[in-house]
Amino acid sequence: MLELEADARVWIFQSDRLLKEGEVERVHSEMKRFMQNWAAHGNELYGDFSIENGLFLIVGADEKKAPPSGCSIDALTHKIKEIGKRLDVDFFNRLIIAYEDPSTDIHLVNMETFKALIRRSEITEETTVYNNLIDTVGDLEDKWRTKVGRSWHKNLIEVL
């Protein structure tokens, strides 16, 4: 996934739809160029990125070598919004939830549909979800793709 230390900072941008193969290649190409020039106050940032499942753009930065500044994070956000606009994709809709069905196919649903699936017991604490709110590269291994019962999504079950 990312070739950074486990404590490196991570941001996950989830597309609002599955990207087509050509779109994945375009995002990869644009992000590769961006990452080569990504800097904070003139200092090169040590980062990496990955596109997973044609749905998730994951960006990491080694804060020990050079911490990202507000301006560098803004530049990253601007770049991803720019890519999204060109592809007619929204990487910033936090109300869309990615979860897996029993066959491990990934589905995207809005928050209200997710809640309805909980009420119908189609989603339980054992359903696999993607927790895009994680903070570090190390969290990608055990907290990103996880069970509802181990994620913030559990709050939705408790409320309903």
Structure description:
The protein is an alpha+beta fold. It is built from 5 helices and 9 strands, in the order βαββββαββαβαβα. The chain has helices spanning about 20-35, 70-85, 110-120, 135-145, 155-160; strands at about 10-15, 40, 45, 45-50, 55-60, 95-100, 105-110, 130, 145. The strands form 4 sheets. It has a 3-stranded antiparallel sheet, with helices on one face. Strand 6 and strand 7 form a beta hairpin. It starts with 8 loop residues before the first strand and ends with a helix. The model has no long low-confidence stretch (mean pLDDT about 95).
Keywords, please?
160 residues, alpha+beta, three-stranded antiparallel β-sheet, 9 strands, 36% helix, globular
Task: Name the average pLDDT.
Answer: 94
The biggest sheet amounts to:
3 strands, antiparallel
Strand content: 15-25%
Please, what is the oligomeric state?
Answer: single chain
- Global structural class: alpha+beta
Proportion in helices: 25-40%
Low-pLDDT segments: none
Dominant shape: globular
Q: Give me the Rg, rounded.
A: 16 Å
Give the termini separation: 35 Å
Q: What is the strand arrangement across the widest sheet?
A: 1-5-4
- What is the number of beta strands? 9
Element order: H for helix, E for strand = EHEEEEHEEHEHEH
Q: Count up the helices.
A: 5
